[in-house]
Amino acid sequence: MKHIPPIPLLLAFDAVARLRSFHRAAEELSVAHSTVSHRIRELEQLCGVALFARTTRTVTPTPEAERLLGPVRQALATLGEAFGPPRDARTVRVSLLPSFARFRVVPALAEFQRNHPQIAIALDPTSQMIVPRHGEADIALRFARAKPVEPHLDLGHDEWFPVAAPSYLATLSQRALPRLFGEAMLLSHSRHGWEPWFREAGLPMPRSHRVTTFTDTGLMLDAAMRGQGIAYGRRSLLLHLLKSGQLVRLSPVSLSSAHSYYLMASERIETSPEVRVVHAWIRALVGEAS
């Protein structure tokens, strides 16, 4: 037992190897960048080998690290199962972004439960990178720029375009583009500004534009539905809002997202019919908006 490294060192090792980034590993573990660096150095000293080849832009596991990753991840998964809460075999734990949970999964949940009353779903809306094979979830849906290292299904890109509530458009004196944008309040996500869409549409960015910026997609769409401005929305989240007429699309021009949806699953998918059913359902929800 004396040769087993402290668990925080192993968690840092797994996160850096998986994310290929000390910065992203620190964000996932909710610790400082320097803490992750210190833990990796300490683990390298214990192992007597270098675990990562570092450059200014990349972090790559060494052959020694690749040899250790499998056993380390299996051990972490076993610990997660051992110390996690007792779980009903019929319960499927699903980790996904809060926005997708709210605008796509919850509206479809009642129908799923009617069709599959024997399956219980435990939803975990989070923006953290959850790894099902570590025992943190049975299924995880991520919307990311980089492909996960873990086995996954690539469900494709999304696209962005402007939407607004009909009640808000009725308050504007200008109805035609681009003048409408010059009068309106623009609602934007902090990581996805309007400028790329205006370039794609061949429209000038309004000189005196007013923008309210959100770090949460759900809040931005809430503001749009409440008639507070024009939102820069993502197709996969807008399907039911557009069908119901709560929001309307303002232009046929869309901008392809640099991010894609990736669907991952734990080993339970091989033995659990319930996990396979939920996995197929989540996959269909993403594909429905394609």
TrEMBL record:
Signal peptide start-end: none
InterPro entries (UniProt xref): LysR-type_TF_proteobact-type, LysR_HTH_N, LysR_subst-bd, WH-like_DNA-bd_sf, WH_DNA-bd_sf
Domain HTH lysR-type: residue ranges: 5-62
Pfam families linked: HTH_1, LysR_substrate
Alphabetical list of SUPFAM superfamilies matching this protein: Periplasmic binding protein-like II, Winged helix' DNA-binding domain
Keyword annotations: DNA-binding, Transcription, Transcription regulation
Keyword DNA-binding annotated: yes
Similarity remark: Belongs to the LysR transcriptional regulatory family.
Protein name: LysR substrate-binding domain-containing protein
Species per Swiss-Prot/TrEMBL record: Cupriavidus basilensis
